[in-house]
Amino acid sequence: MSNRPLASAGRAIPLLRAGLIAGIVVAAAAYPLAAVTGIGAKATAHAVEQKTSILKTALPAETSYLYAPDGKTVLTMFYEEYRQYTKLSDMSPNILQAIVAAEDNRFYQHHGVDPKGVARAFVSNARSGGVSQGASTLTMQYVRMALRDSASTPKEVQEATQQTSLRKVKEMRMALDVEKELSKEQILERYLNSAYFGHRAYGIYAAAQIFFSKTPATLTPVEAATLAGLVKSPSEYDPITSDQKDATGRRNYVLDRMAQLGYLSPDAAAAAKSQPIQLKLTNPPNDCASIDEKRTSWGFYCDYLKNWWSTQPAFGENRLERMDKLRRGGYRIVLAIDPKVQDAAEKNVGAKDGTGSPFANGIVVAEPGTGRIKAMAVNRNYSLDLSENGPSSNPEAGPKTKANYPNTVAPLLGGGSLPGYQAGSTFKMFPMLAALNSGKTLSTEFNAPYRYRSRVYNDWQPTNASGAMTGQQTMWSAFGKSVNTYWVWMEEQIGAEKGVRLAEQLGLRWRTDVDREHAAPDRASKWGAFTLGVSDATPLEMANAYAAIAADGRYCEAIPVNSILNRDGTPAMYTTIGGVQREVAKPRCRQVVSADAARAATDAARCPTGDTPAKGSCGGWSTADSVRGTVGRPVAGKTGTTDSTRSAWFVGYTPELAAASFIADPDNPFNAVGDGMSQVPIGAVAETLRDALKGQPTRQFTPPSDQIVG
């Protein structure tokens, strides 16, 4: 055979159709089971009809890449089969020639089935009394791999790969049909992107990366022959093992075949055979735990991405299908995380005890108007290695149960299955916002007692944290001082269910049986303690809910991405309930309360932070009056603590960013953090907002109207 350039490779020597059919007849004789079962054109026609359309378009599973916001820095990958589809034009001619030499030296002469190869297999099998040769052409091998890759059930995988005469004859028939539809170049390209080379390397791109840390375009004859030699038996000819004798022998066989076919001169082949196999190994990262140690905290954000992905109908009917798409779909995903904001968040959480505390101090930062999550940080290392973790602080967990620190992959910040933590008085925002949206004014007064007896909530008698809160209060002062009795009274005026339903509209979900029971439509009107924050919530939920207030009442679903591209470079899309096609990565926003109500709530929420509202008075003191001085710009927010200070919270926002921070023991909610720890989340939010916004122009909150001020 002459050493033709690839451009002429598709001009195969014509073969008579009758000769090809004869090849299948010989195959039936070569495989006694086929003859016994009478396999012929009619027996296989239905299977061929079913599978040919798949083979025409089948693309193998491809690795999905997760990028930093610059769209260039790869953080990690998601795959079951490490593979990146590569065009033939981006492959070195050396690998094209090597794979033909190794697997099918008559590739350019046959039409999918090689009668000469079948004849050789017949003779060999007759002598051995079994199936010692299979006569598989590159096209037949591609058929097998395409059927495997397009299989949706274990049974289909087995049928595509089992060593039976039935499968072999069907494979031949399909190979003939495939060669009518695809050019030799197309078949070779798909083959090289489907073949398995060992060590999780599926396709030539992965093989070149794993074994030689290079792209397929730069493979030398020696490297190409080494890789081509692996396809026959990746484990037997594995060059990564300490003894490379078998790998070298197989490589040299391929080099000899390349020389015989005219791809290499005899001298070049001899020189190549004299060289040792020199590997430069790469271990491609996979999943969130593989993110570089320098960005270990980004693992929590990556994990949030996975949990978010698993809820998106655009990627499948259920969680299993969606995660399979992530690992096999070849997506290019660019995170919404902001490195500057993330650095600020990491710097300002857990500063006192670091990762060595049972109390988790975490923070989430959301962007008003888009719902994009800009940072997630917690005083933990994202790691699967729990060997150095001590015993859990929960006495009911048992001595063998590991604590959640210093290492964990638990979704402590939200977005997963954990219910979160009681959020205390940060929940007062919901009845206040509902009241303002229902027509109440900021100036609504109530003479709040220390203890209040509720006639609506079955004589429940909540109290204030301090006697100093007793007296005439407006929304400004009651929110700034966190006056429990005022907000229970306000809840009675509007109906507790309005606050509950509004919280749901702002993204909160009830994850415990107790919370679901109280939030039920027939019970919510009696949930008086809702305003005191007895429900569990996550910092992800709270940051995004408050971000909607900063965005003048426009709620946007929390989203961890800037963009998601399909393997063909087009944006990933989904269909709305109304039948409209939209990009999955675009913000999904809706107006939940009026802009004026949101602005009024913000005006009152400036009181807890030590800021000055545009229209009213905070009453002389507040619960987090250091925040305004730390942030150095207009800021609103709310503190929250639970009974016995088992957990403490602060949620704060500027026009640009909203941040929620908590401190609690995720292992044991009864392990109280104590009053001394209540300042930790306040400091985390204030310092993060300060550092994240440093150098940016100061923006002002829009004042509420005189009508809603009252």
Automatic annotation (TrEMBL):
Transmembrane annotation, as ranges: none
Keyword field contains Glycosyltransferase: yes
Gene3D superfamilies (alphabetical): Biosynthetic peptidoglycan transglycosylase-like (1.10.3810.10), DD-peptidase/beta-lactamase superfamily (3.40.710.10)
Secretion signal span: none
Superkingdom classification of source: Bacteria
Residue ranges of every copy of the Penicillin-binding protein transpeptidase domain listed in the record: 363-663
Catalysed reaction equations from the record: [GlcNAc-(1->4)-Mur2Ac(oyl-L-Ala-gamma-D-Glu-L-Lys-D-Ala-D-Ala)](n)-di-trans,octa-cis-undecaprenyl diphosphate + beta-D-GlcNAc-(1->4)-Mur2Ac(oyl-L-Ala-gamma-D-Glu-L-Lys-D-Ala-D-Ala)-di-trans,octa-cis-undecaprenyl diphosphate = [GlcNAc-(1->4)-Mur2Ac(oyl-L-Ala-gamma-D-Glu-L-Lys-D-Ala-D-Ala)](n+1)-di-trans,octa-cis-undecaprenyl diphosphate + di-trans,octa-cis-undecaprenyl diphosphate + H(+); Preferential cleavage: (Ac)2-L-Lys-D-Ala-|-D-Ala. Also transpeptidation of peptidyl-alanyl moieties that are N-acyl substituents of D-alanine
Cited SUPFAM superfamilies: beta-lactamase/transpeptidase-like, Lysozyme-like
Start and end residues of each Glycosyl transferase family domain: 74-258
Keywords annotated in UniProt: Carboxypeptidase, Glycosyltransferase, Hydrolase, Multifunctional enzyme, Protease, Transferase
One Pfam family from the record: Transgly
Region entry Disordered, spans: 385-405
The keyword Glycosyltransferase belongs to this UniProt entry's keyword annotation: yes
Biased composition (Polar residues): 385-395
InterPro entries membership: Beta-lactam/transpept-like, Glyco_trans_51, Glycosyltr_51/Transpeptidase, Lysozyme-like_dom_sf, PBP_transglycosylase, PCN-bd_Tpept
PANTHER family: BINDING PROTEIN TRANSPEPTIDASE, PUTATIVE-RELATED, PEPTIDOGLYCAN GLYCOSYLTRANSFERASE
The protein's name in its UniProt record: Transglycosylase domain-containing protein
